[in-house]
């Protein structure tokens, strides 16, 4: 006995519903894919922001040697990233490792996307590494249209090393006008005047530096040297704590001895010892040497 097979036709509405369900599932999958892409892009953007923030932290507040290690790893993993190479160069300079920074900055100046500022940073590293002649050549190759504080400060230092005093003064003056924090460059300019024997002008420039930055002890010590060179053995009226006062009296005493005013130097050294809140070994040794 043969059993007949009956074909039950699907209703049109059922077919449409099935197709809609399949299409809906497909759309959901597409939306999930698109959503995944958007999430990936968002995470990449967040990671980029985090990386930039970390780089900024490493260049400013992080320990200098730690920053060097960070940028060394990052540069090795991303050899085409010029920003990471710049960070490595800046970190090495900040860590006092200028000799190592020089080849890094040389490589930066040869990478796609390099700027004239990178050449200025190379010159900075060269000066710190006492490679004055090459720094001079690098700065000479920088177009005169690059008018930045750092460029003129370095130009002034190179002119000083060449004893080109008129150029030096001109570059220092320009640099002072290009920064809102001129204490450092005023101190350098004053020291330039001090080495030339222009003690009165040096004293004036050191006083200006201290006015802009009252914590700059180097300028305080230099102004005492400038006054001592003029045989003016009174401390200037500048902000100083007790330890600084003792150190400046010590500097003034040595300056007096250098001028041949031995008795005055001894008295200043005794005052330095009495002023210091702790044992002032350097002043004690100097006084003993004079008394001996």
From TrEMBL:
**What is the superkingdom listed in this entry's lineage?**
Bacteria
Matching SMART domains: TPR (SM00028)
SUPFAM superfamilies under this entry?
A: TPR-like
Classification via Gene3D superfamilies: Tetratricopeptide repeat domain
Q: Per its UniProt record, what InterPro entries does this chain match?
A: TPR-like_helical_dom_sf, TPR_rpt
What is the protein name for this chain?
Answer: Type IV pilus biogenesis/stability protein PilW
């Amino acid at each position: 006995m043969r059993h007949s097979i009956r074909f039950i036709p699907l209703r049109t509405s059922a077919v449409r519903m099935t197709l809609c369900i399949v299409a809906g599932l497909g759309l959901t999958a597409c939306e999930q894919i698109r959503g995944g892409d958007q999430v990936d892009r968002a995470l990449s953007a967040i990671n980029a922001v985090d990386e930039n923030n970390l780089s900024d932290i490493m260049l400013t507040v992080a320990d200098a040697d730690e920053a060097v290690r960070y940028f060394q790893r990052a540069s090795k993993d991303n050899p085409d990233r010029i920003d990471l190479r710049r960070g490595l160069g800046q970190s090495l300079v900040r860590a006092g490792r200028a000799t190592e920074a020089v080849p890094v900055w040389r490589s930066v100046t040869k990478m796609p996307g390099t700027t004239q500022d990178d050449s200025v940073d190379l010159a900075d590293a060269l000066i710190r590494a006492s490679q004055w002649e090459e720094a001079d050549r690098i700065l000479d190759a920088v177009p005169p249209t690059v008018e930045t504080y750092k460029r003129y400060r370095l130009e002034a230092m190179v002119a000083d090393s060449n004893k080109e005093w008129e150029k030096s003064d001109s570059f220092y003056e320009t640099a002072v006008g290009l920064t809102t924090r001129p204490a450092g460059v005023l101190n350098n300019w004053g020291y330039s005047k001090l080495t030339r024997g222009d003690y009165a002008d040096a004293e004036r420039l050191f006083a200006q530096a201290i006015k802009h930055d009252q914590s700059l002890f180097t300028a305080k010590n230099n102004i005492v040297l400038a006054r001592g060179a003029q045989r003016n053995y009174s401390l200037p009226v500048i902000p100083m704590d007790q330890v600084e006062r003792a150190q400046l009296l010590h500097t003034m005493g040595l300056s007096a001895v250098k001028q041949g005013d031995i008795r005055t130097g001894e008295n200043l050294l005794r005052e330095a010892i009495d002023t210091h809140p702790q044992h002032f070994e350097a002043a004690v040794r100097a006084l003993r040497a004079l008394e001996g």
